[in-house]
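Protein folds are increasingly written down as discrete tokens. With that in mind, we are printing a sequence and the tokens encoding its fold.
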Amino acid sequence: MFLSRLTLNTLSVTVYFLIAQNVQSIIPEIVYQADSGFLPVNYAELIPYLIQAVKEQNGKIDSLSQLLSQKQFSTNVITNAQGILYQNDPNPFSNSTKIKFYISDNVINAQLLIFDMNGTEKMQMPLDKKDSYIYINSSQLIPGMYLYSLICDGKEVDTKKMILTK
């Protein structure tokens, strides 16, 4: 594309041009050879191509938006090649809480570890790739703040905080 400032008498106008050779390399059927040797672009024939390109781009945007909403990504989700750990819900909790996770197909062994704030391991639960969440009941822990970590093949994927109230 080419941008030019054109001044006619006292009127100054910004004019945009397409470089015919650039258009010709993409859509050769709308660029013509004039007797003078110039390559004029038929802008009217360009419009359907632009409309189609916008439709395709909107389709891709919609597909990606749908994929992101299905995966429920948010700013508090950490991802890597092995898995995703979500924040427990509800948090704080008094009866039970749900911890959602995703484990990649290439992971062999996955587990969730729960630690108290002193770093003492309180629970260790093996995770199955077929599942996508587990429940923690308040009867399994005493009220307080805890850290829970997703471990995939011996590597920490992510750690989050949860609070159990009375």
Remarks:
- The CA atoms of residues 1 and 44 lie 17 Å apart.
